[in-house]
Amino acid sequence: MTESASSKVLRAVLFILVPAAYLSIGLWRPASSYGPTGRVEVSPLCSVLMSAVFVVCLCSWSRYRIVASLGFIACLLWLAAVLLPVL
Question: At what angle do helices 65-83 and 44-59 cross, to 10 degrees?
Answer without folding.
Answer: 150
